[in-house]
Structures are given as C-alpha cells and as structure tokens.
Specification:
heterodimer, A: Sodium/glucose cotransporter, two-stranded parallel ribbon, 76% helix, B: mainly alpha, 2 strands
Chain lengths: 511, 110
C-alpha cells in the first residue's frame, strides 16, 4: 500500500466524519433522521440519487463488463439509464405525494391494513439484506485488492463507518456523503475518459477501429452476443434492470427527502443527466481498460472484472490516479451501504415497530430510539452475514435484489396509484407472489445452481434456465395482485378518489 | 401521528368527478401513456433486435455499427424525454394548484 493511497483513504474517512458531525447536530427528529427533514433541494437530492445509483457495482462492475464482454457489458448502462424514465413518468411524483418515510407509507395511503404494511416492510427488508450482503462482500474483496488488507478487516472498516454515518447523522449525513462521493466519482470518470480519448486523438471512430483488434474477441467484441446468447434470458435481464430501479427501497426513500413533487421531479432530472453522462463514460473506461490494461491482466486481478477501472487509472495516470480512483471506489461503497442501512432501518423501526406494533402512537423519543436501534441491528446483522459469505459467489444477490424490487414492489406501487378496483387482498398477494416467485426462481437458476463445483452455491444442473427470472416473476407479481383483487369483494372507491386526487395534484391535508 | 388514517374533511369524490380534475387527468394521461409506451418499446427493441436479428451488426460510420448508434439513441431519447416530461408536467402544475385552491381547500365543492 503506497503512502498516497493511505493519505487519500484517510482524507475520505475524515471528510465523511466531518460531514457526519455537522449532520448529527441537525438531526433531532425522526423526520430529520429518515428524510433529512425533507429539506434537500432538487439539485442536491438529484446528485444524491445519482450517488445512490452509481454503486461500486455500476462503477467498477460495468467498466469491467464492457472491458471483458464489449457491447454486452453496455446493456447494463442502457438498462439502468432507461430505468429512470420509468421512475420519472410513473413513480416519483405520486410516491412523493402519498408517502412519508417508506414504501409502506405510500401503499397505506390507500389501505390501512397492517398486513399490507407488514408485507411491504418484508419485501423492503429482504431486498436491503440481499443487496447489502452483495455490496459488503464486494467491498471486502475490493478493499482487499486495493489496499492489501485482510477481507474481514475490510468488511469491518466499511461496516463500522456506515454504522457511524447512519447512527449519528441519519439521512442528512448519508445524503451529503453521497453527494461528495458522486462529485468525486464523476471527476474520476471524466479524468480517465479524457486520458483514454487523448490516446485516440479525441477521435471516437479511431477508438472503435483500434479496440476491434485490441482483444482476443476480435471484431466480435463490438457486437452483441459475447455474454448473452439466449434471447429470452437477455430480455429477462433487461426487464429486471429497467423495472427494478423503481422498486429499490433506498432509491424510493430518496424521494421523501425533498419537500414536494415538483422538487422530486427536478431531482430526477439532475439524476438522469448525471447518470446518463456517467454511463456514456463507462464506455470509454471499458474500452480503455480492454486496450491499455488488457483482458488477461483484468481477469488475473479479479475474475469478475471489477479491477478494470482502477487498473486503467494506473496504466494511464500512474500511482496517483490509481490511489484517487481507489479512494473514490471506497467512498462509493461507504455511501451506498449507508443508504441501504437507512432504508432497512426505516422498514423495521417505522413500519414494523412504530406503525404496526405501536399502532402509530409511539412518542417522538421512542421512534428516534427505535430508528437508531434498528440501524444498529441492520448494520451488525449484515456485517455478520458478509463475514460468513466471503467464500460464496454472491454476485447473483444484486440481480436478485433488482428482481424482487421489480416483481414485488413495482406492481403494488403502480396498482395503488393507477387501479381503482385494487384492494387490500390484492396488495398483499401482489407483494407476496412477486417476492416468493423471484426468490424461488433465482434459487433454481444458473446463478445458484451450477454443474461446475464451486461456481455457485449449489452444484447441479439449474432447473430454471435464466440467471435473471424477471421475465416470469414480474408478470407473476402483477398477476398475483390482479387475482387477489378479483377474488376479494372489498373495494373502496371513495378512498381511491382521495388517493387519485392527492397523488396527481400533490395536495396533503397535513401540510 | 398517524394522521393519514383520520377521516378526511375534503370530499375527494366530488373533486375527482369535477370537470376541472377530469380535464387535468386527461391532459396528464395524454402525455404519460404514449411516452411511456414509446420508451418501453424503443428500449426493448434493442435486446430483441440484438438477440433475434443481425442487421444491427452492419457498419454505420467507419467501424461503428448500427447497434452502437441504436444504443446511443437510447441515451438521446432519455435526455429528450426527460426534458419533455419537465415541460409537460410543469405546464400542468398551475392547473393542479388551481384545483387545490378552487376545490380541495374549500372541502371539495366546485
């Protein structure tokens, strides 16, 4: 580990702690804790959303995927980007208008049933835990590579840091850590992309021509089909990417940190532009890594390709740039896991404890304590799981999280806002069918079952053909909600009239 | 705390059935539905074309084939639709405010 790396690493840690210190002073109520008091501006929140979205998986993962698989890696960039149109057109504003802290709050604007809140909290917690383990295990492995420290120490460092941010600084600290990291990450991306383009005299045509002969794939590198050969499997992945985002709890929670739907709208716009530019840049990183680092060296460092971006930084900018990118990757991981802790804690403390157990009658002090205990519990629980999962191949957990989000959360969000007949039974069956079918199908898929020993959790031929089951589980989630609704006679058109009016015009009686 | 569960003082059914709100909803639907269908179709056309056809592999500009042009078109589309959405949704904000002022705050009577 070089001196520069250590200095930059400590600088990031120090900066985030200073942020947490100031945020802690301003975090007094539960509203402050969960949503920064709804006081972020559209621009700040937009940058924070981008930060939440540009996790280590998309920064390091996509650059690696493009470096190794060419066009097929770029599918991720496109899917994640278009996902924002779904958020913008269908979800963001109604969600902001109806909800308070959590997804369950929004659904409860229509149904008072505790079972619905419980089901929504369950799917939120499931997504958070899976996503978190994937991030922490990835983080541990990555920090091990970057800084040469042991896996368990790496996981503990990340775990303790995220706990400190959330416990003391709540959403305010989490958001500002996210904003700072997003700015650093964009700066890093722009610098590397600039260096790559400089090598090709800023001629994109030359870049394509050169990269055609730079890899062992030859001209196939520029064509789709290196990794995704099965049509329906590809389609299934693309469904999970585009629909999953609008159901991810830590992304949904971001829309409660602004004061109204108009601000939510402007934050999605900032996020879309930032993320869009970012994903275009992933192409330069991927191509650059393939050309100037070389696929064999990338694979040698990490079979998943996660080291492509840092290695490219080293090849083009030397130790200093490598240290910078490593530090940014570290900050990225910290910020994303902190957001996850917060959304998991809100499901436990606000939904399960505050609303179901205490029937919404918990005092402010009790709620605040519950929020902090829940954050601590979520953090400790995920750290323990991540420590135990070191040897497991957990990459599938990310696609599982996206799949549950698309199959369990999105149908119920859309039905709640747009379907008059929808009822309590339908809400429960939608969430449970989506959740269970995603879990079961992934468990039977090639992600979990592989005939090659050690390649996946279970050795054996996969029963379900596609790594990502969204093509089946998303329609099942919608169907589950439909059948549940039809089978129950319950319907409340008066309540729906209220939801419809409030969701669309943004009126809230309490405000 | 749980103020959402209290009985509402506003007659939302009346608001929902008012001509003003119906017109507002029609305008919202008019841009949300077609644009949503458009971007979803445009998006899914990419993996469908790459999986089941090969015409996108023909070169467009130098060594850049059509599949890349299509991929970049997705980015352009996102930026364009994002701008369109802001404009259209922003234009309806005034109408939403009017519904709040004229109806909701008066308890629902038009």
């Amino acid at each position: 580990m070089s001196m520069t790396v250590i200095v930059l690493f400590l600088a990031i840690v120090l900066l985030t702690l200073v942020i947490t210190y100031y945020a802690a002073k301003n975090t007094k109520t539960t509203g402050d804790f969960y949503t920064a008091g709804g006081g972020l501006t559209g621009f700040q929140n937009g940058i924070a959303i981008s930060g939440d979205y540009l996790s280590a998986a998309s920064f390091l993962g996509i650059a690696g995927a493009i470096a190794l698989n060419g066009f097929d890696g770029f599918f991720y960039s496109i899917g994640f980007l278009i996902a924002y149109l779904v958020v913008m057109f269908l979800v963001a504003e109604p969600l902001r208008n109806l909800g308070k802290y959590t997804l369950a709050d929004m659904i409860n604007a229509r149904f008072d049933a505790k079972k619905v809140r419980g089901a929504a909290a369950l799917s939120t917690i499931t997504i958070v835990i899976f996503y978190m383990i994937a991030q922490l295990v990835g983080a541990g492995a990555l920090i091990q590579l970057l800084f040469g420290i042991k896996y368990w120490i790496a996981v503990l460092i990340v775990g303790v840091m995220m706990t400190i941010y959330v416990l003391f600084g709540g959403m305010m600290a989490t958001s500002w850590v996210q904003i700072v990291k997003a700015a650093l990450l964009m700066a890093g991306m722009v610098i590397i992309s600039f260096l790559v383009l400089m090598k090709y005299n800023f001629n994109i045509g030359t870049m394509f021509t050169e990269v055609k002969t730079a890899t062992s794939h030859g001209s196939a590198y520029l064509k789709p089909g290196i990794q995704y050969k099965d049509g329906l499997g590809t389609l299934s992945l693309m469904i999970a990417l585009v629909l999953g985002t609008s159901g991810l709890p830590h992304i949904l929670m971001r829309f409660f940190t602004v004061k109204d739907a108009k601000t939510a709208r402007s934050s999605v716009i900032t996020a879309t532009w930032t993320i869009g530019i970012f994903y275009i840049l992933t192409l330069f990183l991927g191509f650059g890594a393939a050309a100037f680092v070389g696929q064999s060296k990338i694979l040698e460092a990490n079979p998943g390709g996660n080291m492509a971006a840092p290695l490219l930084a080293k090849a083009l900018g030397g130790e200093l740039l490598f240290a910078f990118i490593s530090a940014v990757a570290f900050a990225t991981i910290l910020a994303v896991v902190a957001g996850l802790v917060l959304s998991g804690a809100s499901a436990f403390a606000h939904d399960l404890y505050g609303q179901i157990l205490k029937k919404g009658k918990a005092t402010e002090r009790q709620q605040m304590l519950a929020a902090r205990y829940a954050s601590l519990a979520v953090s400790v629980f995920s750290i323990i799981l991540a420590l135990g999962a070191q040897k497991l191949n957990v990459a599938f957990l990310v696609s599982l999280a996206f799949c549950i989000a698309a199959s369990a959360n999105l149908p119920v969000i859309l039905y709640t806002v747009y379907w008059k007949r929808f009822n309590t039974t339908g809400a429960i069956t939608a969430i449970l069918t989506g959740l269970i079918s995603a879990l079961v199908l992934v468990a039977l898929s090639p992600s979990v079952m592989s005939p090659v020993p050690g390649a996946a959790l279970i050795t054996g031929d996969p029963i379900f053909p596609w790594a990502n089951p969204a093509l089946v589980s998303v329609p099942l989630g919608f169907l589950g909600g439909y059948i549940g609704t039809i089978l129950s006679k319950e319907t409340d058109p008066i309540r729906y009239a209220e939801v419809k009016v409030r969701a669309n015009i943004g009126y809230n009686e309490q405000s | 705390m749980n103020d959402q569960n209290e009985k509402s003082k506003v007659n939302y059914v009346q608001v929902e059935q008012s001509e003003q709100f119906q017109q507002f909803m029609n305008k919202r639907k008019k841009f949300i539905v077609p644009y949503t269908i458009f971007f979803l179709v445009f998006y899914f056309l990419l993996p469908i074309c790459t999986s089941y056809t090969s015409f996108l592999n023909t070169p467009a500009i130098g060594d850049i084939s059509w599949v890349w042009i299509f991929a970049f078109a997705q980015f352009v589309m996102t930026f364009v639709l994002c701008t369109v959405y802001v404009k259209k949704a922003g234009a309806l904000d005034k109408e939403a405010d009017q519904i709040i002022k004229n109806q909701v705050q008066k308890g629902g009577a038009a």
